[in-house]
Amino acid sequence: MKYQVQENCLTIFLPEDVDHHNAEEIKREADRLIDREHIRYIIFDFADTGFMDSSGIGVIMGRYKKVYMMGGEVWAVHTNERMKKILTMSGVMKIMQIYEEDK
Q: Within 10 Å of residue 67's Cβ, how many Cβ atoms?
């Protein structure tokens, strides 16, 4: 996983599969950066992601709860149709915004 911090914004470049095998590592590193860098905004970058299970949903929900308490927001970028469907069906779309670039 790759992480990028700019001011109070953390971008998490998600792997091809976001599942129970790597969710714990994403949570641990994201939480460390959120605390250390005083992060208020998180961008989940789905450019390389083709699969996400409930563990991935848990990663998003947990980080949302963490930054929401500080007035922050969670965003998604580069979501393909499959990821949009997963995010919608899981209810995550109610708490996160999807940023789409003009084609």
A: 19
The dihedral over CA atoms of 55, 56, 59, 65, expressed in degrees to the nearest 10, equals -100
Contact assessment for residue 21 and residue 56, using Cβ atoms and an 8 Å cutoff: no
CB 58 within 8 A of CB 26: no
41-45, 72-76, 93-97: which range is least confident on average? 93-97
Would you say 49 and 14 are in contact if contact means Cβ atoms under 8 Å apart?
yes
DSSP conformation letters of 25-43: HHHHHHHHHHHHHT--EEE
CB 48 within 8 A of CB 82: no
Q: Are 46 and 79 in contact (CB under 8 A)?
A: yes
Tens of pLDDT, residue by residue over 55-78, are 999 999 999 999 999 899 999 999
Q: What is the pLDDT of residue 62?
A: 97
